[in-house]
Design brief:
Blueprint: E1 5-9, E2 21-28, H1 31-43, E3 47-50, E4 56-57, E5 62-69, E6 74-79, E7 83-89, H2 94-104, E8 128-129, E9 132-133, E10 138-145, E11 151-155, H3 156-159, E12 176-186, H4 197-205, H5 213-227, E13 235-239, E14 245-247, H6 248-257, E15 264-265, E16 270-272, H7 275-281, E17 288-289, E18 292-294, E19 301-304, H8 310-328, E20 337-338
Parallel strand pairs: 2-5, 3-5, 4-20
Antiparallel strand pairs: 1-2, 6-7, 7-12, 8-9, 10-11, 10-12, 13-19, 14-16, 15-16, 17-18, 18-19
The chain binds uridine-diphosphate-2(N-acetylglucosaminyl) butyric acid.
């Protein structure tokens, strides 16, 4: 029996720990329950899907039925000589899924260790870290159409994945709820991605030449813990901004003034500049305005020191955007969803 609660604080349900209220709130634990709520709710009021709440900034109370997705379960679907297909329900915690893979010797998601959030939200922004993105192991996902409750299957191609992007953030935004994701993982001859500078250094420091899945995961966890705040301790949503991509002309001018600017050269004369570096150079690293702040070890992460409101965090992000634009002529785009 579904229990709809009223006036529920969403503080425990978003990693920024912003205390806004949902006028109605329901937890669904199966696909059938989700369909039931979608269809029932169509006739009544608007709704809002919330799973891990790890990539959003809530700036106001939500006058809708908030549906918290808690559909659990991980199932091996198929095994071949060197790979396995695993179905993971949307409400599974992402890191617990990574941990399951490491325990079972399944390769492909170890670089994505310790990313907050749920499996069902991961495809929306094609989560990525240390040279690996969700799309690299993603096979397909299932989603319910919010209007009709019908199930639809999305292949990798249909998802149109890009850097922190997919159709679920663009053309199909707000139209579907992802209920489960199928991953193809390796069971032998794993293709480790250890080329990322920080991983190589961490493995070297640990005296590891030929790492195992577990050793890579442990190294990534150590790197992340050294600069990214634990949302359970300090509210945050990971990278607040995307790393901006600029033309080589803009980049060359920037490099003349700041010869040490870190960057990654992309195709088509484009260059990616780390937003964290821009925010730090603009003087915001470790700054605090009331309870809204910029993390002292990674300027890309905005933090809630306790009782910041979503509006205060948003105001800080806008102040940063304006300063970076004035100083470098580069626009920073928010990576988190501002609600
Ligand atoms: N940097 C600074 N100051 C800072 C932060 C970074 O100068 O305060 C410089 C670093 O020195 C480095 C460069 O910026 O030269 C890049 O930093 P880092 O390698 O830490 O990665 P990032 O670009 O800051 C991205 C992702 C992270 C992901 C890491 C590792 C985005 C927006 N962020 O961060 O993703 O964990 O790479 O792959 O692409 C997330 O999306 O929430 C997230 C944490």
């Amino acid at each position: 029996m579904l229990k709809i609660q009223q006036n529920v604080s969403l503080k425990p349900y978003n990693t920024f720990a912003i205390d806004v209220k949902a006028s109605f709130f329901v937890v669904v634990t199966t696909e059938e329950e989700l369909r039931e709520v979608l269809l029932y709710n169509k006739i009544t009021k608007p709704f809002f899907i919330l799973s891990g709440g790890s990539n959003m900034l809530l700036t106001k109370d939500i006058d809708a039925l908030v549906i918290h997705i808690a559909i659990k379960g991980i199932f091996v679907q198929e095994t071949t000589e060197d790979s396995v297909i695993v179905k993971v329900n949307g409400g599974e915690n992402w890191h617990e899924f990574v941990h399951y893979c490491i325990r079972n010797g399944y390769g492909g998601v170890e670089n994505l260790s310790l990313i907050p959030g749920c499996v069902g939200s991961a495809p929306i922004q094609n989560i990525g870290a240390y040279g690996v993105e969700l799309k690299d192991t993603f096979l397909r996902c299932e989603a319910l159409d919010i209007k009709t409750g019908e199930k639809k299957i999305f292949s990798k191609e249909a998802c149109n994945f890009g850097y922190r992007n997919s159709i679920f953030k663009t053309t199909a935004k707000g139209e579907y709820v992802i209920t489960c994701v199928y991953f193809q993982l390796t069971t032998k001859d794993h293709q480790f991605q250890t080329g990322y500078g920080a991983i190589e250094k961490e493995l070297q420091e640990r005296g590891i030449d030929t790492p195992t899945l577990k050793e890579i995961s442990e190294s990534i966890i150590a790197i992340r813990q050294s600069k990214l705040p634990d949302p359970k301790v300090l509210g945050n949503s990971g990278s607040f901004f995307k790393n901006p991509v600029v033309s080589s002309e803009v980049f060359v001018k920037l490099q003349q003034v700041y010869p040490k600017v870190p960057h990654y050269v992309l195709d088509q004369g484009l260059v990616k500049v780390p937003a964290g570096w821009l925010v730090e150079e603009a003087g915001f690293k470790g700054k605090r305005y009331g309870d809204a702040g910029v993390h002292d070890k990674q300027a890309l992460v905005l933090v809630n020191h306790g009782n910041a409101t979503g509006k205060e965090i948003l105001a800080l992000s806008q102040r940063i955007q304006i300063t970076v634009l004035e100083k470098f002529g580069i626009s920073l785009e928010a990576e988190v969803n501002v609600i």
